[in-house]
């Protein structure tokens, strides 16, 4: 059950919810796809085109589906607290990312961007399978994967942003959306599978 805003911990819970929104999966996915699309493209117009395609299929369509489902009452919020309810939006996200990847490959997108979206597809598929039995934290997984991929692409000093992963994990535990184990599990998946696979593909 999600935590309430009653009692002396109210300020901490409010802060945790803000953190969860600022570093939400859709936000981080959009940021990293746009950054790598622009950095790996030969010119700005091409970079903007690939940024639009990758961010649209990897972030835009999935969050649109989540928000639409929340408004229709299919799940409680766009974060989908119930584990079983997460399977459908995660499956839709997998399909959207796969379609985006096909467009990138056949459209001749930069190799780094193709590697990124391939990594996203594999990690998202793995997380979807895990979610059938265990509510792994997608927030923590994507935050950790984003830090690892950004460090591999733009320089090792980006590993300093690991503190953001800790902050995100804390926020998901404080709001009652995940246990510490689920937050840690997400961070491990994002770092090991996300960072590891991207390093191999890159």
TrEMBL record:
SUPFAM superfamilies reported in the protein's UniProt record: Acid phosphatase/Vanadium-dependent haloperoxidase (SSF48317)
The record lists the lineage as:
Bacteria, Bacillati, Actinomycetota, Actinomycetes, Pseudonocardiales
Write out the entry's keywords from A to Z. Membrane, Transmembrane, Transmembrane helix
* Entry's transmembrane regions: 22-41, 47-67, 87-106, 112-134, 141-160, 180-201
Its domain of life? Bacteria
Stored InterPro entries: PAP2/HPO_sf (IPR036938)
> What protein name applies here?
PAP2 superfamily protein
């Amino acid at each position: 059950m999600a935590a309430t805003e009653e009692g002396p911990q109210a300020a901490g819970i409010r802060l945790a919810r803000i953190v969860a929104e600022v570093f939400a999966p859709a936000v981080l996915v959009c940021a990293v796809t746009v950054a790598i699309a622009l950095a790996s493209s030969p010119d700005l117009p091409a970079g903007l085109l690939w940024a639009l395609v990758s961010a649209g299929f990897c972030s835009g369509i999935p969050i649109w589906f989540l928000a639409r489902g929340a408004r229709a009452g299919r799940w409680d919020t766009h974060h989908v607290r119930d584990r079983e309810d997460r399977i459908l939006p995660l499956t839709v996200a997998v399909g959207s990312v796969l379609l985006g990847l096909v467009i990138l490959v056949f459209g001749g997108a930069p190799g780094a961007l193709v590697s990124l979206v391939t990594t996203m597809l594999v990690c998202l598929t793995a997380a979807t399978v895990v979610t059938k039995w265990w509510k792994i934290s997608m927030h923590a997984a994507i935050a950790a994967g984003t830090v690892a991929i950004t460090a591999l692409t733009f320089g090792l000093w980006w590993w300093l942003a690991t503190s953001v992963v800790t902050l995100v994990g804390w926020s998901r535990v404080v709001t009652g959306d995940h246990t510490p184990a689920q937050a840690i599990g997400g961070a491990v998946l994002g770092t090991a599978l996300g960072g590891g696979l991207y390093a191999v593909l890159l």
